[in-house]
Amino acid sequence: MVERLVKPINGWLMLLVEIVVVVAAGLVTAAAIDTESGPATVIAGLLWLTALVLPVGFYIVTPNTAKVLVFFGRYRGTVREDGLHWTNPMMLRRRVSLRINTFDSDTLKVNDAVGNPVEIASVINWQVADTAKAVFDMEDYESFVHIQTEAAVRHVASEYPYDDYEEGQLSLRANSDEVTATLQQELQERLRAAGVTVLDTRLRRLAYAPEIAQEMLRRQQASAVVAARQLIVEGAVGMVETALDMLAEKDVVELDEERKAAMVSNLLVVLCSDRGAQPVVNSGSLYQ
Q: What whole-number distance in Å separates Cα of residue 190 and Cα of residue 188?
């Protein structure tokens, strides 16, 4: 089933026709009473019947909505043009919203690609693009969107690890743009049958499940400490190298290899320690 747009009949024009029919019915009725004419009575009855039936065909299409027209079980088309319209009074008209909808999924517990339980939830913005598919191909397209969204979130979450445990590996936490792009693409494939377009997808919640959250926090803290120590050591080595070069260049003091080693050791201890240095005065010689 594919949407087919139809040009609606102007409702204001038909309203004028309705007024003319009512006036004509009143005049014919008055004439029939005066003349007691049988044919005039029949015509008056038909005019009054027409005046009663015509208003049933009026309908209004508001902005960002559409009307799906069905005549005796057959799809006749969709009206997207807003305003007052008229159609066959026997035509069924079903309203379909074309506004942007937002679905906030429940928080789901899913095992990621390496088996760690994570909690994940998403927010999607979607819109009906094909009213015929939404109405006739789906029993309830809104419920279909909700169920397929949760299914897609579960599938995508199971395809990626929560964290990048290996170099160059995509992860849920570090590559949110790539993950949401994959989620949107998969959702669009699932919802195409319902005539729905996915406009935007975002992860609303992403966290380790409570039963492993504490252990994973320790792992992250340990990784942060190692990275910080590595940076401190690299900086300290550079500072020591600069100090030795400046002492040699300005000829401040002549240091043999043993004294250089002692100086390097002391400087690295001072620069890399996470506590304040405690100075010690050495009144003797390094060789005593």
A: 5
